Amino acid sequence: MTRSALLVLADGRFPAGGHAHSGGAEAAVKAGRVHDAASLEAFCRGRLHTAGLTAAGLAAGAALGLDPHELDAAADARTPSPALRAAARRLGRQLMRAARATWPGPGLDALAAAFPRGAHQPVVLGVTARAAGLGPEDAAHCAAYEAVGGPATATVRLLGLDPYQATAVLARLAAEMDEVAARATAAAREGVDALPAASAPLLDITAEQHAAWPVRLFAS
Predict the structure, then answer these.
(1) In the list 2, 6, 25, 130, which could disulfide-bond 151, CB 3.0-4.6 Å?
(2) Within 10 Å of residue 171's Cβ, how many Cβ atoms?
């Protein structure tokens, strides 16, 4: 295992397509729920403990080597919004392309063959972590960070928010990210049926609304 591989995988410049997605922040900004650093922190905290926890569990399970078909089905069951399911598979396809170019191996090849239209992004993330020599905790940390890093970066672009303030939000959430990653990994060690299924109904509702917008900055 190499921590350098973890840095590569978690780097926002890794070409996995996340820069085109706001994690629900664009809809929250338009609705006025996110308008400054404090409201961004509240939004990210809520997302971390719901969608982030769920994604971290799926990623940890995939890194442990749990059945990817069962994990993908579990991801579908935990994603009631068709728009979010479609976005997760698009992100999964993009991550798969980047991962196979970076850490080629039979695990990623097998997953790509099994899901030609794309597996859910957290499942691909976990298999990618495994291919990179990383463990389930690493995969869970990546998923937890993505859950808040994406909205924070998007809000800088959407509101012109001071990037120092956005980064400070992430720093204040660091301990909670560690907690979420630890909870997700512990659950994944118990098997697919024990994976977190925390819900965020408002994210699901606004994702459907956002998908119908004729003009938008982000894909989701």
Answers:
(1) 25
(2) 8
Contact 140, 122 (CB under 8 A): no
pLDDT of residue 1: 56
- Give the predicted TM-score (pTM) of the model: 0.95
Q: With contact defined as beta carbons under 8 Å apart, do 58 and 201 qualify? A: no
Q: Output the six-digit token pair for 44.
A: 């990210």
Q: Which of 171, 185, 201, 175 is nearest to 80 (CA)?
A: 201
Query: What is the tens place of the pLDDT at every residue in 16-72?
Result: 999 899 999 999 999 999 999 999 999 999 999 999 999 999 999 999 999 999 999
- Beta-carbon neighbour count of residue 134 at 10 Å? 22
CA dihedral 216, 79, 151, 180 (to 10 degrees): 180
Q: Which two tokens stand for residue 173?
A: 């959430």
Residue 126 Rama label (left phi>0; alpha psi -120 to 50; beta): alpha
Q: Are 151 and 25 in contact (CB under 8 A)?
A: yes
